[in-house]
Specification:
Number of strands: 2
Radius of gyration: 20 Å
Structural class: mainly alpha
Oligomer: single chain
Distance between the termini: 57 Å
Shape: globular
Number of domains: 1
Order of helices and strands: HHHEHHEH
Strand order of the largest sheet: 1-2
Helix content: 55-70%
Largest sheet: 2 strands, parallel
């Protein structure tokens, strides 16, 4: 089983486990061995799955404004955790390939392996929920057919993205691509970088 096959299997296990209770406040029960890549991937997708449902909840037009504000802050915090974990996965890959010497003409990819994996995790969620819609008995036949057509596109995208990720990892392993990682350096959650936050602090 190659990397993306493993990742896809882990992502779907996380999604299925979440939907046992289908509760954004449910505690994660990661079944994989400590320090294993599978454990990291499971944790990554769990964050994505919870955030997916938070994004659904906050779009309720009748939501209480105070609740919406709290949800927005929860989503911001989740985004930061997601970014931190993606960067942790890239660190895992950096360690894995630390003894690889890139060729003199090695290329630099526009996307690191972990950010591509991030897209695969989100894609697993899209496939899961689009499949539900494609088979939802309470929906119209037209709705189900439209969702099935979208699901077919998503599955094609899954194949292409998986192939691209596996090819990227192979290219890094053989020195054809140089793995170079940049931190995201998000500013909005940082009291010293977000002017709304640090100006408020100066006014005290």
């Amino acid at each position: 089983m190659n990397f993306t096959e493993t990742a896809w299997k882990v992502f779907n296990q996380s999604i299925e486990d979440y939907h046992v209770f289908d509760d954004v406040n449910a505690l994660i029960n990661n079944p994989f061995e400590k320090d294993s890549l599978e454990r990291i991937l499971y944790a990554k997708n769990w964050i994505d799955t919870v955030q997916w449902h938070l994004e659904d909840i906050i779009r309720d037009e009748n939501i209480d404004p105070a609740e919406a504000l709290q949800l927005k802050r929860t989503i911001d915090a989740s985004n930061q955790k997601r970014t931190d974990l993606v960067e942790f996965i890239d660190s895992w890959f950096l360690t894995k390939f630390e003894n690889i010497t890139p060729k003199p003409d090695a290329k630099i990819n526009t996307e690191t392996p972990a950010w591509a994996v991030d897209r695969l995790s989100i894609l697993a969620l899209k496939v899961y929920h689009m499949s539900l819609e494609a088979h939802r008995e309470s929906a119209s036949e037209e709705h189900r057919a439209n969702c099935q057509a979208k699901l077919d596109v998503l599955m094609s995208q899954k194949e292409d993205l998986s192939t691209s990720i596996d090819q990227l990892l192979t290219d890094i392993e053989y020195g054809n691509v140089k793995m170079k990682v940049y931190k995201q350096m998000k500013m909005y959650n940082d009291d010293s970088l977000n002017p709304i936050l640090y100006q408020k602090g100066q006014q005290k």
